[in-house]
Design a protein that fits this description.
Helix content is 28%, strand content 0%. It is built from one helix and no strands. The longest helix has 15 residues. The radius of gyration is 28 Å and the shape is rod-shaped. The protein starts with 17 loop residues before the first helix and ends in a 21-residue tail after the last helix. The model has no long low-confidence stretch (mean pLDDT 79).
């Protein structure tokens, strides 16, 4: 029987820990995601006072 050598997996990354790989993915997602729009303040502005009825 011929001796088989271990073939590297096409998706394997040599020399990178899983922690570093996950950190790199999280950083890439944070950089590529646009910021969320600001949440409007439900309180009226300082100059806008409602009159009593």
């Amino acid at each position: 029987m011929p001796e088989t050598k271990a073939q590297p997996q096409p998706h394997a990354v040599a020399g990178v820990s899983m922690h570093d790989l996950l950190a790199a993915c999280a950083a890439a997602k944070a950089v590529s995601t646009p910021p969320r729009p600001p949440v409007p303040d439900p309180r009226p502005a300082a100059g806008e006072h409602r009159e009593a009825a």
